[in-house]
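This part of the workshop introduces the protein records we will be handling. An example says more than a description, so a record of this kind follows.
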Amino acid sequence: MKGLIVKRILGCLVVITMTTLAFAEEPAWPVFPDQNATVAIPAQEWPQRPGPRTVRVKVFFPGGQRTKMTADTGVMLSLHNWGGEDCAGTADPQTLANVLNVVALCVNYLQSGKHDSIEAPEPYDFGYLQGLDALRALWFVMHGLDDAKIPFARGRIFATGGSGGGNVTLMANKLAPRTFACIVDMCGMKKLSHDIAFGLPGGSDLNARWSRDPQSKNYLSIDEQELRFVGHPQHLATMKALGNDCQMVIVHGTQDATCPFADAQELVAHLKTAGLSVAPQFIGKEQLDGVVFTSTGHALGNRTKIAPQMVKMFFPHTTNVASRKTDFDGADEQVRYRTTHGAFVISYKQGFPVGRFEPNPLPPEYPDQHDLLSYRTADGTRHPVQTVADWQRRCDHIRTHLERVMGPLPSAVDRVPLNVETLSEERVGTVLHRKVRYQSDGFDKVTAWLLIPDPAREKKLPAMLCLHQTTNIGKDEPVGRGGSPNLHYAKELAERGYVTLSPDYPSFGEHPYDFATHPEYASGSMRAVWDNIRGVDLLTALPEVDAERIGVIGHSLGGHGAIFTAVFEPRLKVIVSSCGFSTMTKDDVPSWNGPRYLPRIATQFGNEAKRLPFDFPGLIASLAPSAVFISAATRDDDFDVTGVKDAVRLAQPIFELHPAPTLLKAVYPDSPHDFPMDARHEAYEFIGRVLKPDAK
């Protein structure tokens, strides 16, 4: 039966057609052949073209005959390239069958051929249903051998493919993490990056024809993009937990411009971090032998020679290979990959795989945002917060509800290389002022001031992310290049021995930004949060910075930006907010609804504080046990100081629960909307107690 999954995304209901075709409604499975043959197997429905679907599979036995098999014969997928069919762009299957003693399979997976993969209007699948097609072909052979009671080596299950086939090989191993003994990826795509997904200028000339428009049939959701990222750190951890012990051989040309070499480096790094078995074979000029490897680019060389050479090198076992339980044998649904809004489940209850998406349950509503000493279960039942674990449940709900207003936090796919550029440098006293530009995501770059004090030459220093107020000069104000002297906190902190980074908020300073052309961000606030998180990435990578001692400070726009950022960024150990908020119940709610800030406040919540699913008391409390310093001017005409006092009072019990009662501090200077000297000095002392605890 065809299933419709109703998926909750950021407070909107989006209907996505997924497929859970029952076995009885699919075309019949073919008879298992006794010699080389071409068969058509039933496949999972493709939502872009609903209805029954079959996949052509070419089966190759050693010597061309099933009778030539032995108990040591394995099974191997050999998967064609993007735009190809059958065995194009991959290792010759009969050669693999004979040389490696395997039953070799070529799979005409979804969108095989030039028309469907390149010329047709539908977006290129990029490994999901394609991987399931390949796995169904593998199951067909293994199941057929079992039914015929023909012994084979279940511990010698391999896969290989070139380019698009390398991508499907990697995805097959991800979707069946307990099945393969060894895979050989030959210059395959590692992730559905923004430039590939949307045909943007970037690291590849590939165009998968997806859309950024949520209303489009071809819209690429965060969840679908995350699944197709084979190096997704959380998904690799899931594979490790499921017992993946596959020897993954990543063969990639160092000059590959089609499937960027940088993506291969990133994948290998993530695989190593996850503790999975990976053998990188990066092909530079010194590896060219004129026979096997003839190119450092996408072509690589003779793929029919590359694949068996890699298998023999990294999985040399040809006899007495221990049998293994595969995903097909489990008849379970343990393969689950969490994504932003749910999980992709690969069910093996029918033996062959069936994929589906399960959306997250909606978080419970909280009628009173100021009641922080309770959490609610899915049925709405109220429970008292008595432990840190209880609070964590509420904290998860606070973040989820905040995303309903801000839009979703970008995912692991958006963590592209920073590619930091130095635009200028000058020394001001004992501090080096360096203007830099870094890649925030696949669409946009951020310009920032990086201030490095002289002591960083000898030792790693703590660092502060410094966020500016609403001002046209943006980042220049915190570093002392204009604006109010009371807001030169990046300059003052650098003079106190902190590395500081001051980025431009989108649409200010040197960060021109058209919010309407970036539908992937539901708000300017979330766009800025992601820029700030990437700024933390930049700081942690600096040799001058102690990555365990980083905080954030900001005034007004930067004051609530510091809080918003810290809600999603646990690496921030201290948060300083000056004149950045009040409770929404005591604020001018419509003033938040511009495109620079939180437009959903108007479009989805009617500019009504009582309808908003978040408020600042909960956000402040969610930062515990990080240290929080709040400066709220008593004569602030933007943010009502009494609302700040309410927020501090309501959040204090949560800091005491952790226990961290002294890590929430508020001061109330007699001042208009400003960050006066005495308040700043108290803030600096507070920061020092957290980030410089050993300082005299």
Observations:
- The chain has 18 helices and 24 strands.
- Residues 1-24 have pLDDT under 50 and may be disordered.
